[in-house]
Design a protein that fits this description.
The chain has 331 residues and is mainly α. It has 2 domains: 215 residues, HUPs (Rossmann fold); 81 residues, Tyrosyl-Transfer RNA Synthetase (Orthogonal Bundle), CATH 1.10.240. The chain contains 14 helices and 5 strands. The strands form 2 sheets. The protein has a 3-stranded parallel β-sheet with strand order 1-2-3. Strand 4, helix 9 and strand 5 form a beta-alpha-beta unit. Helix 4 crosses helix 8, helix 8 crosses helix 9 and helix 11 crosses helix 13. The longest helix is centred in the C-terminal third of the chain and has 30 residues. The chain is elongated and about 80 Å long. It binds tryptophan. The site of tryptophan has 14 residues, from strand 1 and helix 8.
Length: 331
C-alpha cells in the first residue's frame, strides 16, 4: 500500500506559478509513489466568498483544469470536490469540540487573512473555524503527507493537535501524524516585487497564461530601479527577473554568469527579460496546450470530478465510521 497524500486548493481563481513551485510541482513528482487525493476546497473558499458562490462554482473547473495542465493524472490521483462529501462536515463537527477558541485565534495564517481581508470585528464563524474543517479533510484520508505552500504549515500543526487529542480522549489510535512538505520555493515573489505572488494582488503569472500575457507581464516585471543605463552596475537581490531566472532557468551556470555581468554593468534588463520570457514560455506552453485540450472537453473533466468524488467519499465514510465507533456513537 502506498503512503497517502491529501492536498488541494480553494477554487477562487486559476492557479499561478506560486502554486506551481510551492506545491503542484511536488504533487506531480510524488504522484507515482503516493496514493494522492486532491481536494478542490469549495466549501472552504465559501468561508470568505459566501456572498459570491458563483465565483467559487466557476473556479472549481478552473482548478481542475490547472491540475490536468501541470500533469496531475486522474488515473493516478483522485480529484474531488469538498462540498460533495458531507462526511467531512460531520467530522468537522466532532473535531470542533477538541479545539479551543483561544487556539483558533492563535493560528498565524488566520490572523494574516483577517488582516488582509479586513475582517476585523466581523470574522465569519465559518471562516474562523476553517482550520478545523481542513483538519477533517486531512484526517478523513489519514494522510501521511500534505504538499502545500508554507502558509499551510499552521493548519497541519493544528491537524496533528486534533488527531492526538482525539486518540487520547477516545483511547484509540484512529489517526497518525501527518507531515507537511513545502516546495522548492516557499514563497514566489509577484511580478511587482511584492513578497508574494497572489491573484488578489494582481501580480501573478497564471499556468494558463498566453504567450502574449507572459511577454507583457515579464516586461512589467520589477528589476533594479537604479539600473538606468545599460552600462550601470545593477543589483541582483530583490530583482524579480533574477529571482525568476534563478528558479526557472534550467541553465544555472549561465544564470550565475549573467548575475556577475549585471553586477559589473553592461547588461541591460531587456536582454534578461527576453531570456526569462523564453524560459517561462517553454515551461508553460505544454501546460497551456493540455489545459486547452481539456477545456474543450468539459464533460470529460466533470466526469473525472464525479468519479473522484465518489471514490473519495467512500474513504471519508470509512474514517467517519471508525470515528463514531471510537466515540461510541455508532448506535
Ligand atoms: N487551505 C488550502 C488553500 O488555501 C485549501 C485546502 C483545503 C487544503 N483543505 C486542504 C490544503 C487540505 C491542504 C490540505 O488553498
Amino acid at each position: 500500500m502506498k503512503p497517502i497524500i491529501l492536498t488541494g486548493d480553494r477554487p477562487t481563481g486559476p492557479l499561478h506559478l506560486g502554486h506551481y513551485v510551492g506545491s503542484l510541482q511536488n504533487r506531480v513528482k510524488l504522484q507515482p509513489n503516493y496514493q494522492q487525493y486532491l481536494i478542490i476546497a469549495d466549501s472552504q473558499a465559501l468561508t470568505d466568498n459566501y456572498d459570491n458562490p458563483g465565483l467559487v462554482r466557476d473556479n472549481v473547473m478552473q482548478v481542475a483544469l490547472d491540475y490536468l495542465a501541470v500533469g496531475l493524472d486522474p488515473k493516478e490521483s483522485t480529484f474531488f470536490i469538498q462540498s460533495q462529501i458531507p462526511e467531512l462536515y460531520e467530522l468537522t463537527c466532532y473535531f470542533l469540540n477538541l479545539v479551543s477558541v483561544a487556539r483558533l485565534e492563535r493560528n498565524p495564517t488566520i490572523k494574516d487573512e483577517v488582516r488582509q481581508k479586513n475582517m476585523k470585528d466581523a470574522i465569519p464563524a465559518g471562516f474562523f473555524c476553517y482550520p478545523v474543517s481542513q483538519a477533517a479533510d486531512i484526517l478523513a484520508f489519514k494522510a501521511d503527507l500534505v504538499p502545500a505552500g508554507e502558509d499551510q504549515n499552521p493548519m497541519i500543526e493544528q491537524t496533528n493537535e486534533i488527531a492526538k487529542r482525539f486518540n487520547f480522549l477516545y483511547k484509540q489510535d484512529v489517526f497518525k501524524e501527518v507531515k507537511s512538505m513545502v516546495g522548492s520555493v516557499g514563497r514566489l515573489p509577484g511580478i511587482d516585487g511584492k513578497a508574494k505572488m497572489s491573484k488578489s494582488l494582481g501580480n501573478a503569472i497564471f499556468i494558463g497564461d498566453s504567450a502574449d500575457e507572459i511577454t507583457r507581464k515579464v516586461r512589467l516585471m520589477y528589476t533594479d530601479p537604479n539600473h538606468l543605463k545599460v552600462s550601470d552596475p545593477g543589483t541582483v537581490e530583490g530583482n524579480v527577473v533574477f529571482d525568476f531566472l534563478t528558479i526557472f532557468d534550467p541553465n544555472k551556470a549561465e544564470v550565475e554568469e549573467l548575475k556577475a555581468h549585471y553586477r559589473r554593468g553592461g547588461l541591460g534588463d531587456g536582454v534578461l527579460k527576453k531570456r526569462l520570457t523564453d524560459v517561462l514560455e517553454n515551461m508553460i506552453a505544454p501546460m497551456r496546450q493540455r489545459r486547452e485540450q481539456y477545456q474543450n472537453d468539459p464533460e470529460y473533466v466533470r466526469e473525472i470530478l464525479r468519479v473522484g468524488t465518489a471514490n473519495a467519499r467512500q474513504v471519508a465514510a470509512q474514517t467517519l465510521s471508525e470515528v463514531k465507533s471510537a466515540m461510541g456513537i455508532n448506535y
